[in-house]
Amino acid sequence: MSNDIVKKLRLAGCKRALIMNAPEGYIGKLDPLPEGVVLTEQKESDQAYDFVQVFVYNMAEVQSLTPQAIQAVIPEGMLWINYPKGTSKIKTDINRDSGWQTVTDLQFEGVSLVSIDETWSAMRFRPIGLVKSQRSERQAKRAENANKSPLPADKTVIVPDDLAAAFQSNLEAQVFYETLSYTNRKEYVRWITDAKRDETRSGRVEKTIDKLSRGIKNPMVKE
Questions:
Q1: Segments forming the whole domain that contains residue 192
Q2: Of 63, 71, 137, 143, which is the most buried if we count CB atoms within 10 A?
Q3: Which strands form 49-55's sheet, in the order they lie side by side?
Q4: 110 and 29: one domain?
Q5: pLDDT band (50, 70, 90) for residue 19
Q6: Which residues of 144-174 are buried (b: 16+ CB within 10 A; e: fewer)?
Q7: Is there a single domain that holds both residue 97 and residue 161?
Q8: Is residue 184 predicted with pLDDT exceeding 90?
Q9: Mean pLDDT of 11-25
Q10: How many domains does the chain have?
Q11: Where are the extended beta strands (E) located within 85-201?
Q12: 120 and 207 in one domain?
């Protein structure tokens, strides 16, 4: 992997990838592709993909392109919808919180958000049914573990405000964090709060979301 984009999008482990409406030069940023990944920019009518990424510039493209992307991705696959950042030079009528009615009407829910570069953000969507099922299973598991070995009150980990704010855009990361042991939750919080500079702390919050989204239980785990 030549950069962090492949890691952020969790492309490794996928077999068939479809990238739709990519801006000029983007595909080259993914080289070299992870081993075993076959990438195409043209959707084949009878083909299903376990990784689909689509770039949309405005609400009109959300309406026209995202149904095609949703149709192409398998239920457990990775679906990323890229949209222009508010700070980019691209004029757009969509942002993190609005413009996704077409997607929600198709029963998909945003679960995490990553930054691709200075121009693009990418939001991951999953079928609403799978999100609710996964959330319920993890909550039930935590409740079961709590009943077996309840934690004393002094083992509560207070989530700092900046991490809590980041969780608002990354439900999947938050749900995974809440399943972690007391020690691992504490390690993530300590890693963030021990930062001496604001920019270091901001970077660690972003990396925390990335690590949690990829199922990494402790920030000190070497990759």
A1: 151-213
A2: 63
A3: 38-40, 16-20, 49-55, 73-84, 120-127, 108-115
A4: yes
A5: very high
A6: eeeeeeeeeeeeebebeebbeebbebbbbbb
A7: no
A8: yes
A9: 95
A10: 2
A11: 108-115, 120-127
A12: no
